[in-house]
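Please fill in the sequence for the structure shown.

STRUCTURE ENCODING:
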């Protein structure tokens, strides 16, 4: 057995213009399963920010009418290759990952009105407009991917302070945007 298939390797790669298309294809598949429950669906995370390096995992944010109904779709989601992880550390979320060691997608599902939806969208939108901070984020992720090549927790913890700082800026910035 190839040991590389059993260890999750943290790597960030140059932006791939196909990530948007991959998101759209996957969103359609998910919608075909959960469509009656989905109120909104978005491409989030670093793969949604053009021109910056990212882990090649498409993050998808889904807002649903009733979070309690999401668990009913677990078997159908498994047929698409997803692993249902329940709340997975965030109260009120349903998290799915596609691929254990060679992940391709993460689904973050929240009930409409959950503040996590706005937080994720504000972060993405802020980074799309503030290229200097997006570049700083890219630099940090590159450094952390080298330092924590086999340690996803260390990688994520290393980004935590930066993300919290951007979350605060993005929340204030979002208040000034024309709706």
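FILLED IN BY: designer on duty
SEQUENCE:
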């Amino acid at each position: 057995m190839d040991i590389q298939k059993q260890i999750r390797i943290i790597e960030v790669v140059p932006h791939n213009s196909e990530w948007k298309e991959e998101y759209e294809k996957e969103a359609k598949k998910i919608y075909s399963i959960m469509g009656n429950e989905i109120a909104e669906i978005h491409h989030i995370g670093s793969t949604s920010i053009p021109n910056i390096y990212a882990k090649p995992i498409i993050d998808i944010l889904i807002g649903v009418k009733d979070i309690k109904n999401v668990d009913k779709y677990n078997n159908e989601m498994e047929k698409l290759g997803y692993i249902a992880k329940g709340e997975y550390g965030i109260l009120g979320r349903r998290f799915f990952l596609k691929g254990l060691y060679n992940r391709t997608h993460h689904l973050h599902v929240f009930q409409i009105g959950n503040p996590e939806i706005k937080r994720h969208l504000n972060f993405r939108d802020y980074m799309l407009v503030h290229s200097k901070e997006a570049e700083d984020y890219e630099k940090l992720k590159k450094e952390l991917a080298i330092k924590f090549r086999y340690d996803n927790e260390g990688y994520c913890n290393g980004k935590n302070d930066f993300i919290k700082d951007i979350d605060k800026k993005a929340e204030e910035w979002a208040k000034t945007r024309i709706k």
